[in-house]
Design a protein that fits this description.
Layout lengths: L12 E4 L15 E4 L6 E3 L4 E9 L2 E9 L2 E6 L1 E2 L7 E2 L4 E5 L11 E7 L2 E3 L2 H4 L14
Length: 140
């Protein structure tokens, strides 16, 4: 059975884009910030998956969903009643936006996606941004 297409977890603007760190532990922005939102906004599963983590990381509630084929989404700050092992389908309510944690000027959702452990731009999966294409330099 084919996996459902990816979609945004919430309808909102991109407040802060993905910025791949130069090294695994270097500075960067390992996801996108979507907003501004209202606290309590419904956050939806971007595609089919299974809840792999719910809890607090540092000072933020986090929800992670494993989508198969090496993909793992994480959302913060998101509160959920889902439990590890629960299945979700694309578009299912997965949680609600918690009070702002200071990550953005206004309440926002931070959505990160890893593919086999490497952070990628989540918007590439939804078709909301085009992949970069490197072209050869011409003779000058």
């Amino acid at each position: 059975m084919a996996q459902a297409p990816w979609r945004l977890p919430v309808t909102a603007d991109e407040l802060r884009p993905f910025a791949r760190p130069p090294s695994p532990w270097g500075p960067g922005h390992r996801g996108v910030d979507l907003g501004p939102l209202s606290v309590g906004a419904t956050i939806r599963a971007p595609t089919d998956g299974e809840v792999s983590f719910t809890g607090v990381v540092v000072d933020r509630p986090v929800l992670s969903i494993r989508h198969g084929k090496g993909y793992l989404s994480s959302f913060e700050p998101v509160e959920t009643t889902l439990e590890v092992g629960d299945r979700v389908s694309a578009g299912d309510p997965a949680g609600t936006l918690a009070a702002s944690s200071g990550h953005c000027d206004a309440p926002c959702l931070h959505w990160g996606v890893r593919l086999y452990g490497e952070y990628i731009n989540p918007l590439l999966l939804t078709g909301d941004v085009e992949a970069s294409v490197l072209l050869p330099l011409g003779d000058e």
